[in-house]
Amino acid sequence: MDQLVNLTYDQLSRFTDSFSESKYIGHFQFGKFYRRKSFWPGGYRHFVVKIWETGYNILRLADEVILLRHEKMLSHPSMVPLYGFCADGEHLGVMYEFQASDSVYNLIPKDSFTWLQRIKVALEIASLLKFLHTGHPQPFIVRNLDAAHILLDENGYPRLCDLSMVTGGILPDRTVHKNNHVHGSHSHIDPYAGKKGKCSDKEDVFAYGVILLGLITKRVYKEEDQQAQLPFVHEWAEREYNANESDSVTKTAQRSLVHESLTNDPDFNSADGAKITAMAMECINVCDYERPTMKQVLRSLLTLPVVKQHAPFLGVN
User: Fold this and answer.
1) pLDDT tens digit string along 238-278?
2) Are 33 and 48 in contact (CB under 8 A)?
3) Among the four 88, 117, 234, 250, which has the fewest Cβ within 10 Å?
4) Which helix (H) or strand (E) holds 26?
5) Which CATH architecture group holds 6-99?
6) CATH number of 101-312
7) CA 111, CA 117: separation in Å to the nearest integer?
């Protein structure tokens, strides 16, 4: 494992041309992402600079560094490779080493973001959450899973780039810390969480369901939506999905929320729509105990016709 680099805030500022718009990728819950491209012996290296701007974050920085330096965590391809960190007074940041194209949040509404690319994101993030939730003495719970926290690399693989609120596994239980009152990422927060007084991996399942709905409906919750008091993506989906509810099993099975433009994608199969919609709706079920596990979600996604037809592109064996 390479030695972790201790960075100053001035270095991060220089790396990003004083955090210029030309280097800006997007936001995350507590700050912003920027690009950096540097020439090294042997060629260029690409980095993502993440700057925390709001909130009490020193514990979040420490937890993220511990997690991303753990050998087992680095075994999953969607875990982001950590290059260095900055804890320079009140200035906090990290540098990841990979070439970022854009965030899933930015890509979701775009026509250029194809059906296959969306399915690839859905599969890889489901795989990552299954990995985090299982195979450890205690499950890791992300708690603030958000489309804005997922960046695609140059090969279209999603990288989870914010682990600021992870609890469980090798980490302390941050859900009880007095300075960690944040419950999740806005618009992805499970409105039914905390009823039993403790954190659950079903909160991650709910947030994943919101991301999956965004991927298939081309909808994200924007700042202007909040100002206009428009419904969250999951609220809109529940209304639309139930609008045509019928006692007919056949009609119910055919319900799909896939955006019309995506149904015209040459790689879209009509059988995909209803199945992936139903899975997303199960993930946001009001009853957390009725939500699927991420293992069940991944298993269901692997049965989609699009996955079977394009297994090599999607990295499915």
Assistant:
1) 999 998 665 444 454 478 999 999 999 999 998 999 999 99
2) yes
3) 250
4) strand 24-28
5) 2-Layer Sandwich (3.30)
6) 1.10.510.10
7) 11
